[in-house]
């Protein structure tokens, strides 16, 4: 059977964040299964070899998207304020929907795999545009939710758009809803009445990095000596990632060992009220901890240019001595399974999904919101007692193979994809009359174009969205008729 065209859609792809990292595993799986994979995002963190479409307004950090978000959620709006916000919002929706729908039609996409966009409020225009496209084209869709919008009080505080918020994620018959934790599944079922499938985040253990010629100079590249321990926090610099707790842990261990071990942070600073990044810098200076912000050198995958070499997040795990995850959000916790896969000691804060790991038998150094003497003592023991650390790592690795390996993803993903084999989308119905892009010049090409045009007129399908690209590569508003 000929494999279908599938598009993976996200606000960002190929970046060092939880959504991108997890999306990459599904992309790899789609490719291995033989699907023709297209990548669609507002930003790509690194070069890609697959067919791709980049639309800046899809990025949640696009200045206009952030502006609309700030207007919609930062203050209570009166009637005129809501009307103004809706005008701005609808303008962005059109700028996303037209080019995106056009790309799906022109490339005969038959399945959508959406990462967070149908459930996230970080980019409201993308959320609205995607739900309209999915509904209008009736594409079989996998919609994954990494974060649930109502868990962030910022989006609920002023309730300016209650109808939109109450309908997120949307109930659409052609959408299979997927989340990665039982906690999120229960919330989506209770608040939205959705039937949600739980597919946990997984690790492809065959793709783990080993010491090689490319990453052998990792320490040297960051100015880290061989006698210094690397404490890795593989997150962004954001308030709920609690970087200050990692700084405190490294400071305490440094005092005991009389060393200047380093804290390596792979993610970028995130804009937030109160300037959290500045607070982090002040704390690292006050506690005399060497913090290396490596977001400009560590990406999802390796690549290099003539001036500089860029490392993979896997290289960072490989060279780390201890992984720190003081996060207190409701995320799945990718660093947990990543640290286990690389058999590294892990200090993890108590967060909602931790119980799903510990109930399966995983063992970590657990921090209950505070860096206390007991926590520091337990970690220091693991650093000194290599045999105990290795035993804990092996136990965790065996459990990872059973519960969070690539085979687990196969087991859960294949039934969903197989269920789409008999689905009929609007694109499937009109796929015969969508002409392939051709160059002017040959008689055969002009004949094919003429036949395609006749087929369109004969069947009179719904008018296609016009390609809104202009000569400079940007996009223009459609002219209302």
Task: Summarize the structure in short.
This protein is of the alpha/beta class. It has 18 helices and 16 strands. 42% of the residues lie in helices and 15% in strands.
Radius of gyration: 24 Å
Shape designation? globular
CATH architecture of the largest domain: 3-Layer(aba) Sandwich
* Number of separate helices: 18
Number of domains: 2
Topology record:
Blueprint: E1 5-13, H1 18-32, E2 36-44, E3 52-54, H2 63-73, H3 79-106, E4 111-115, H4 124-137, E5 141-145, H5 153-156, H6 162-166, E6 175-179, H7 182-192, E7 196-198, H8 218-221, E8 230-233, H9 243-257, E9 262-265, H10 276-286, E10 290-293, E11 298-299, E12 303-304, E13 309-312, H11 313-319, E14 322-325, H12 334-341, E15 346-349, H13 354-358, E16 365-367, H14 373-384, H15 386-403, H16 406-419, H17 426-430, H18 443-459
Helix pairs in contact: 2-3, 3-4
Question: If you had to describe this structure to a student in words, what would you say it looks like?
Answer:
With 481 residues, the chain is of the alpha/beta class. It folds into 2 domains: 5-202 and 409-459, Rossmann fold (3-Layer(aba) Sandwich), CATH 3.40.50; 206-404, Rossmann fold, CATH 3.40.50.2000. 42% of the residues lie in helices and 15% in strands. It contains 18 helices and 16 strands. The strands form 3 sheets. A 7-stranded parallel sheet has the order 3-2-1-4-5-6-7, sandwiched between helices. A 6-stranded parallel sheet has the order 10-9-8-14-15-16, sandwiched between helices. Strands 11-13-12 form a 3-stranded mixed sheet. Strand 9, helix 10 and strand 10 form a beta-alpha-beta unit. Helix 2 (63-73) packs antiparallel against helix 3 and helix 3 packs across helix 4 (124-137). The longest helix has 28 residues, at 79-106. The radius of gyration is 24 Å and the shape is globular. The two termini are 43 Å apart.
């Amino acid at each position: 059977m000929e494999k279908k065209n599938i598009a993976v859609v996200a606000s960002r792809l190929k970046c060092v964040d939880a959504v991108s990292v997890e999306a990459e595993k599904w992309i790899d799986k789609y490719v291995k299964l033989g699907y023709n994979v297209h990548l669609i995002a507002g930003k790509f963190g690194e070069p890609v070899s697959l067919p791709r479409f980049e639309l800046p307004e899809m990025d949640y950090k696009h200045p206009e998207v952030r502006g609309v978000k700030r207007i919609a959620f930062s203050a209570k709006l009166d009637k005129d304020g809501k009307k103004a916000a809706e005008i701005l919002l609808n303008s962005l929706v059109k700028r996303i929907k037209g080019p995106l729908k056009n790309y799906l039609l022109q490339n005969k996409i038959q399945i959508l795999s959406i990462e967070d966009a149908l459930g996230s409020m970080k980019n409201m225009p993308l959320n609205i545009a995607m739900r309209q496209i999915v509904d209008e084209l009736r594409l079989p869709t996998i919609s994954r939710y990494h974060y649930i919008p109502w868990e962030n009080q910022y989006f609920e505080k002023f309730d300016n758009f209650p109808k939109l918020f109450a309908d997120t994620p949307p109930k659409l018959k052609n959408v299979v809803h997927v989340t990665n934790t039982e906690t999120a599944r229960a919330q989506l079922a209770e608040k939205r009445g959705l039937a949600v499938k739980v597919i946990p985040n997984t690790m492809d253990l065959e793709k783990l990095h080993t010491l090689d010629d490319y990453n052998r100079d990792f320490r040297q590249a960051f100015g880290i000596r061989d006698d210094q321990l690397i404490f890795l926090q593989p997150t962004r610099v954001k308030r709920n990632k609690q970087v200050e707790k990692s700084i405190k842990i490294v400071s305490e261990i440094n005092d005991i060992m009389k060393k200047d071990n380093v804290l390596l942070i792979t993610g970028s600073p995130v804009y937030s009220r109160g300037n959290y990044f500045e607070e982090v810098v002040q704390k690292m200076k006050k506690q005399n901890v060497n913090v290396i912000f490596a977001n400009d050198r560590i990406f999802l995958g390796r690549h290099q240019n003539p001036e500089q070499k860029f490392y993979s997040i896997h290289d960072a795990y490989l060279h780390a001595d201890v992984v720190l995850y003081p996060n207190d959000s409701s995320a799945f916790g990718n660093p947990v399974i990543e640290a286990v896969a690389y058999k590294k000691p892990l200090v993890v804060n108590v967060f909602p999904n931790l119980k799903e790991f510990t109930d399966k038998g995983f063992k970590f150094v657990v921090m209950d919101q505070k860096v206390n003497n007991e926590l520091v003592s337990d970690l220091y023991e693991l650093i000194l007692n290599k045999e105990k650390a290795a035993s804990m790592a092996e136990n965790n690795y065996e459990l990872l193979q059973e519960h969070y390996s690539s085979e687990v993803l196969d087991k859960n993903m294949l039934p969903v994809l197989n269920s789409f084999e008999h689905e009929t989308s609007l694109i499937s119905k009109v796929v015969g009359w969508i002409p392939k892009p051709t160059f002017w010049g040959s008689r055969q090409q002009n004949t094919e174009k003429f036949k395609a045009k006749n087929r369109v007129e004969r069947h009179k399908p719904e008018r296609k969205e016009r390609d809104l690209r202009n000569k400079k590569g940007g996009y223009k508003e459609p002219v209302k008729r």
